[in-house]
Design brief:
It contains seven helices and no strands. By secondary structure, it is mainly alpha-helical. The chain folds into two domains: about 1-60, no CATH class; about 60-145, no CATH class.
Amino acid sequence: MPRSHRVAGALIGSVVGDALGAPFEFGPAGAYGKRFPTDARGVLTEMCGGGQLNWAAGEFTDDTQLGLLLASSLVECGGLDEAEVFDRFVAWLRAGPRDVGNQTRSVLSSGRPWDVAAAEHFARTGHAAGNGSLMRTTPAAIWFAR
């Protein structure tokens, strides 16, 4: 399989997985099983929306939005430019996304350079990255595995 197909599959798979899980974000344990009690293999199933943030069916979260911004930056800059990625993330925050993680909002709205903002947040809270940071590993892995 050509690399371009594997790259597309990894990115699309991440986006679809996030969209499938979005309605269950912040929900109680077992919410998915209650809504879909039967195994989906071999049957026609729905893609649902809803959840605490009332996602549209197929809508992906802030985690994917940031991952796609990272992917765009890697391609357009020809590699990782942390300050440029941070600027994209800040512009995204200013555009008023539906959801923003608390830690992400804190760092991006600090008005400080990316490295200072992250270091200050860590010094203050002891938290280095939320689970949303894992959503950005797919574009990074694709780029750096070239």
